[in-house]
Amino acid sequence: MIRWMIVIFLALLLISWFTPLLHKLGFGKLPGDLRFKAFGREWFIPLTTTILLSFVASLIGQLI
Fold it and tell me: Membrane-spanning regions, if any (predicted)?
């Protein structure tokens, strides 16, 4: 259980570091990425970006 919590924490940390770089490259602005304001906060759900990055990661995994 602790091992998975550490993995999730590290994944979220990496995502937060790479988010500004991905926004500069145009990710997060694709059709299908949801951005809305609720409860005084801006929420962002990157559906299309997640699918695209997952596809690229699987291609890299298969090439290696």
Answer: 43-61
What are the extents of the domains in the chain?
2-63
Q: What is the SS3 assignment for 64? A: coil
pLDDT in tens for each of the 64 residues of the chain?
889 889 888 888 887 788 788 778 877 788 888 888 988 888 888 888 888 888 988 998 899 8
pTM: 0.60
Q: Are strands 33-38 and 41-46 parallel, antiparallel or unpaired?
A: antiparallel
Q: How many Cβ atoms from other residues are within 10 Å of residue 46's Cβ?
A: 20
